[in-house]
């Protein structure tokens, strides 16, 4: 709840705004005629516009109003039928002329219902904007009638008799929390969303024939949250907020005193009852919520689960890593995808964002993991017929899941790695598409299947048999964290020279891959295949093997549990994998 803003607005010329008409509605300001004896005619045409505002603007137009006007400011005046029929033409009996009644003074209501550009084309919001086209004039009519005989002591009487004006202008803007939060920061120095803002434009000293009543800004995101808490529909809540905002513009202000609050609360209830609208007034609802112990708006983090419907996607694609165990992105430390993360992925895809897996795992392992939360298969985010980047970018699948790129490790490097494994009894696994090959049984090799969901390793009795007729994309060594950092990595970095590269997704695993390859290079191959620019993608990762992918993306998010190398190149450092960091990144940055 918020009273009128008193901060002095900047000059109108500094507040440019453009109107973007919806393709299925004519962009127009609609007018209605209201005679001063309260007879009124509903506006004949939709009053919906889609608008956007320059980022540098602190607010829109002159006290917000001009920025809300539609680009084509057409009005319709609906009065009685104006044709004339003479009695002689219709063969009616002539009678003595009666004195003409004095024509009632008519008051034109010019009403703009606008939808902020960042709100998607949500069917419910579009329907509500259409309903407001009818609701707003009725609310104004009843509110004006109540002014005539009111005896409120605290109301600002700058607007008392609307009959002295030729027309009244009012704009209503529907937006999301992010937009209304920006207004709060600019005008109230408060960095949080609110449900409704009222911006008065009336300047009594000017004595204009037009009553520029002002603007009502409603966050449908906050309204939806409150509607759920209070057990009524989104339309009901928006009507309640409309009444509250309108009363502020007519001089009521619950914040100045207890008496003023009581008077405004009374008028809210009266107006809602007169209109036949459901729900209690906003002031009473706020008291009820406080008594029930509901969280204040300031403590609600924006864009959480279920609220993405109020935001347009910022990216066409999200590339997500899902490697590892202790250090992972989609997976938690139990090597599982949490229900929160699964719901975020599901909601992102339902909003038109394509989620693509980019992992060191095989495709079959990724499918197994995501199948457990219902995200594999035709309607999921990974399948045998969907794009993806696997085995550290060495296998890339494009449209219909067809292989578009394969990079194999030099056979000489493969042979040397196998011989080293046998000689030093260091367990090794060779990745060959969806097969895992090894030279001897070892529990750490078994963990690829039991923990990381890879195919069960096949034990090959000799190096020659392992290499014969088999394409190997990468080999990995298992050891302790200390063994990898102090022995394996230094040795193989020097031994392979320019013939291969070493990389780590996990601190206890060393991977040997073809030179010049990475997840990032695999993602780039896929983007070229799909005709997508890196500017259109967001990437979420955590490991050293995610560095190139994070650098490539328009926005790279590294989770806090990730490697220092990943965090060093990321644009944003998110929460940890055990705190649903991937989900938080999607809700916070993707929309």
From TrEMBL:
Gene3D superfamilies with a match to the protein in the record: 3.30.1240.10, HAD superfamily/HAD-like, Metalloproteases ('zincins'), catalytic domain
Single GO biological process annotation from the record: rRNA processing
A Pfam family it matches: Hydrolase_3
SUPFAM superfamilies named among the record's database cross-references: HAD-like, Metalloproteases ('zincins'), catalytic domain
InterPro entries in alphabetical order: Cof, HAD-like_sf, HAD-SF_hydro_IIB, HAD_sf, MetalPrtase_cat_dom_sf_prd, YbeY, YbeY_CS
CDD domains in UniProt: HAD_Pase
Cofactor(s) this protein cannot do without: Zn(2+)
Keywords noted in UniProt: Endonuclease, Hydrolase, Metal-binding, Nuclease, Zinc
Recorded GO MF terms: endonuclease activity; metal ion binding; metalloendopeptidase activity
Family listed: Belongs to the endoribonuclease YbeY family.
Protein name (record): Haloacid dehalogenase-like hydrolase family protein
Species name: Solanum verrucosum
Upper lineage: Eukaryota, Viridiplantae, Streptophyta, Embryophyta, Tracheophyta
């Amino acid at each position: 709840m918020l009273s009128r803003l008193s901060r002095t607005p900047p000059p109108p010329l500094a507040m440019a705004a453009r109107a973007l008409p919806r393709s299925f509605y004519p962009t127009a300001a609609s007018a209605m005629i209201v005679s001063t004896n309260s007879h009124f005619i509903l506006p004949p045409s939709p009053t919906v516009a889609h608008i956007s505002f320059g980022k540098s603007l602190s607010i829109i137009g002159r006290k917000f109003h001009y920025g809300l006007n539609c680009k084509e400011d057409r009005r319709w005046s609906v009065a009685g039928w104006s044709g004339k029929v003479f009695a002689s033409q219709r063969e009616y009996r002539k009678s003595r002329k009666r004195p003409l009644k004095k024509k009632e003074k008519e008051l034109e209501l010019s009403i703009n219902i606008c939808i902020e550009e960042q709100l998607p084309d949500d069917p419910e919001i579009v329907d509500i904007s259409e309903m407001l086209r009818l609701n707003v004039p009725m609310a104004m009519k009843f509110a004006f009638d109540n002014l005539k005989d009111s005896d409120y002591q605290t109301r600002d009487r700058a607007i008392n008799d609307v009959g002295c004006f030729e027309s009244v202008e009012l704009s209503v803007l529907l937006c999301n929390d992010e937009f209304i939060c920006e207004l709060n920061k600019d005008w109230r120095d408060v960095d949080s969303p609110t449900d409704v803002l009222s911006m008065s434009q009336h300047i009594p000293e000017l004595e204009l024939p037009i009553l520029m009543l002002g603007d009502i800004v409603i966050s449908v995101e906050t309204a939806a949250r409150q509607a759920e808490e209070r057990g009524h529909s989104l339309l009901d809540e928006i009507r309640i907020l409309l009444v509250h905002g309108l009363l502020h513009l007519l001089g009521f202000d619950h914040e100045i005193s207890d008496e003023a609050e009581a008077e405004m609360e009374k008028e809210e209830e009266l107006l809602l009852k007169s209109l036949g609208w459901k729900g209690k007034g906003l002031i009473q609802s706020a008291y009820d919520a406080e008594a029930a112990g509901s969280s204040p708006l300031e403590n609600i983090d924006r864009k959480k689960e279920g609220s993405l419907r109020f935001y347009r996607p910022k990216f066409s694609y999200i590339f997500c890593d899902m490697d590892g165990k202790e250090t992972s992105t989609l997976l938690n430390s139990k090597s599982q995808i949490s229900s929160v993360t699964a719901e975020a992925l599901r909601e992102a895809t339902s909003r038109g964002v394509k989620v693509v897996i980019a992992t060191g795992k095989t495709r079959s392992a990724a499918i197994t993991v995501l199948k457990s939360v219902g995200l594999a298969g035709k309607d999921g985010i990974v399948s045998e017929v969907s794009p993806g980047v696997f085995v550290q970018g060495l296998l890339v699948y494009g449209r219909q899941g067809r292989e578009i790129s394969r990079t194999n490790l030099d056979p000489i490097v493969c042979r040397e790695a196998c011989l080293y494994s046998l000689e030093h009894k260091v367990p090794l696994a060779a990745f060959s598409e969806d097969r895992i090959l090894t030279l001897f049984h070892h529990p750490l090799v078994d963990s690829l299947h039991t923990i990381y969901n890879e195919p069960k390793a096949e034990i090959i009795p000799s190096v020659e048999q392992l290499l014969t007729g088999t394409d190997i994309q990468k080999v990995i060594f298992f050891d302790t964290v200390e063994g990898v950092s102090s022995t394996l990595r230094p040795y193989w970095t020097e031994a392979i020279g320019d013939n291969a590269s070493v990389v780590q997704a996990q601190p206890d695993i060393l991977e040997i891959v073809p030179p010049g390859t990475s997840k990032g290079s695999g993602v780039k191959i896929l983007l070229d295949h799909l005709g997508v620019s890196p500017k259109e993608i967001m990437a979420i990762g955590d490991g050293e093997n995610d560095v190139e992918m994070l650098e490539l993306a328009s926005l790279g998010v590294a989770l806090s549990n990730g490697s220092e190398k990943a965090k060093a190149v990321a644009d944003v450092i998110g929460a940890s994998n055990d705190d649903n960091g991937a989900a938080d990144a999607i809700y916070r940055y993707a929309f």
